Amino acid sequence: NGPSIERQLCALSSCQSDMLHTAGLLMTKAMVVGGGEASTVILRDVVSSLVSSSEHDISAANMETDPNDTYVSAKVSNQHLLCRLISIVLNKIVAMHRKHADPWRSVELCSATARLCDLVEEKKLLTCPHIANPNDSTDRLSLDQVRL
Question: What's the CA gap between 44 and 76, in Å, rounded?
Fold first, then answer.
């Protein structure tokens, strides 16, 4: 008898959280030190890895599963992960402000933050998804979108 499904999911969720915080720390440091250029390279890598992971998930999906449902599910999942990661980065920047001098005096950080905001707009991360029922008039943001 192996570990229960709930414990396995909890372990995977914990691992995902640790990875997001590590990536967030890396992005924050890149933003502070390297500005927009360095952080854009990392953001591109994160976005492209999410896209390639989604393509793999879609191709590996069971043939009985509707490919459109799998695609929409992967897209929403990626949107949640990006929202969570960007909110982690912004929270780390705010925490720097509490501990040290004003981080917004850095041109590099301001440039990198502007690019981060451009990504949020480009990927439409703060739009309400109409996934479950397109005819439903109740638009709700996800918890990850609210955090962002």
Answer: 18
